[in-house]
TrEMBL record:
Annotated InterPro entries: NAD(P)-bd_dom_sf (IPR036291), Saccharopine_DH-like_oxidrdct (IPR051276), Sacchrp_dh_NADP-bd (IPR005097)
Top-rank lineage group of the source organism: Eukaryota
This protein's name: Saccharopine dehydrogenase-like oxidoreductase
Domain Saccharopine dehydrogenase NADP binding per the UniProt entry, residue ranges: 7-145
Any single GO CC term annotated in Swiss-Prot or TrEMBL for this entry: plasma membrane
Family: Belongs to the saccharopine dehydrogenase family.
Gene Ontology BP terms: glycolipid biosynthetic process
């Protein structure tokens, strides 16, 4: 009997405004049954109303109507967070960096019986929430699902899609990310930059956290997936590649662990890489990367990095974020190369004898694909509730949505999953 189906928290933030627009689009398109009431939440009523006006204008409407509420809420005010959580079935949390601002929202949602989805790409936050709140969320029947944006729905659901399209047993996957931009170039808001700065600075604590959690080991099924070097020439794409530094690998591993331990499904080994272009581009990136890794180790270095993101990222990150033209001209493709064993073949004996290539492609990753992924994850949680894990808890996307229609929903909204080459023995 809660007044709202979902609330977008941090709606007037840079990413939040695009999530609001996507929620409005989904509601207008009938993706949520009935006439769903939803709300925006944040600190400033004026800014929240401006975001709703912008969303209405983008959708060609005079206004979004009375079904959309406005809630005043501050991440530093626990009472306001509790009041928000009590009024909705689901909170879409857009307030980052999550290592600083995420936990109070999770705590309020668990305590007050609201589900919560975020778009964090910060493994330490995601796994710390699992340690602290998994059991409480299970008791309350609440689903807390992290990394439901570009980090890491394309990767996590892409591995599951590849598995389901292989006739046999998939045992290993490598993914390669390519981001293409138009003549205006591409840019990322500095909120993501800050998350990367503080995340890489805190790697030691992430290792300690994982020891504390005591994850059950996941067996290697089939031939062991070989790790590639830090920089290598990729013959499939005819350009240089490096390991992807985002949360994809850690989140996919959590999903595979859950699917193995809880559903007895064969675990898939996974490595993620990003294509970076020519040798010249690779050398420039390596130099910038070494400087970045050096500076994050020191307090003054982190201050410099967060104060001057444009300088230290060669214009790739900025406090203003991308322009509309930059977003319109940018797209991504994530290509998955999978290998495994054909039907009737024992994965514990012999070499893999079947391969498959799949692809996930979509619009600009940070502020077009991410809102699509987050909102469709929300729709899946609300509409495919019978297909979610039987009990609440803190889940990765693959663990939560493996049995839902999330991939079908994403396909209809422009984040497309497809088979590039059929399984071949």
């Amino acid at each position: 009997m809660r007044p709202y189906e979902l609330v977008v928290f941090g709606a007037s933030g840079f990413t939040g405004q695009f999530v609001v627009e996507e929620v409005a689009r989904a509601a207008a398109g009938g993706e949520l049954r009935g006439a769903p009431r939803w709300a925006v939440a944040g600190r400033s009523r004026e800014k929240l109303r401006a975001v709703l006006e912008r969303a209405a204008e983008r959708l060609g409407k005079a206004a979004l109507g009375t079904e959309v509420g406005v809630l005043l809420c501050d991440v530093g005010d626990a009472a306001s967070l509790a009041a928000m959580a009590r009024q909705t079935r689901l909170v879409l949390n857009c307030v980052g960096p999550y290592r600083f601002f995420g936990e109070p929202v999770v705590a309020a949602c668990v305590e007050n019986g609201a589900n919560c989805i975020d778009i964090s790409g910060e493994p330490q936050f995601l796994e710390e929430m699992y340690l602290k709140y998994n059991e409480k969320a299970a008791e309350k029947g609440v689903y807390i699902i992290g990394s439901c944006g570009f980090d890491t729905i394309p990767a996590d659901m892409g591995v599951l899609y590849t598995r389901d399209k292989l006739k046999g047993t998939l045992t290993a996957v490598e993914s390669f990310l390519t981001v293409k931009s138009g003549p205006e170039g591409s840019c990322v808001h500095d909120g993501t930059w800050k998350s990367a700065v503080y995340g890489l600075a805190d790697q030691d604590n992430l290792r300690k956290l994982r020891k504390k959690i005591g994850y059950a080991p996941v067996p290697v099924v089939g031939a062991k997936l070989k790790k590639r070097g830090f920089l290598f020439y990729n013959r499939e794409f005819k350009e240089y590649s490096i390991p992807f530094m985002g949360a994809d690998v850690s989140v996919v591993k959590r999903s595979q662990r859950y699917l193995y331990t809880e559903l007895q499904e064969t675990p898939v080994q996974y490595s993620a890489y990003v294509n970076i272009g020519s040798l010249g581009s690779a050398i420039k990136l390596m130099f910038a990367g070494f400087l970045f890794l050096l500076l994050v180790k020191f307090s003054f270095g982190r201050k410099l990095l967060t104060k001057y993101p444009e300088f230290f990222s060669a214009g790739r990150f900025s406090k203003k974020g991308p322009t509309q033209k930059q977003m319109d001209g940018t797209s991504f493709t994530m290509t998955f190369f999978g290998e495994g064993y054909s039907e009737g073949q024992d994965p514990q004996n012999g070499k893999p004898n079947v391969k498959i290539c799949t692809e996930v492609k979509g619009p600009e990753p940070g502020y077009v694909a991410t809102p699509i992924a987050m909102v469709q994850a929300a729709v899946a949680l609300l509409e495919d509730a019978a297909c979610l894990p039987k009990q609440g808890g803190v889940y990765s996307p693959g663990a939560a949505f493996s049995k839902t229609k999330l991939i079908d929903r994403l396909n209809k909204c422009g984040v497309e999953f497809s088979v590039i080459s059929k399984p071949e023995v």
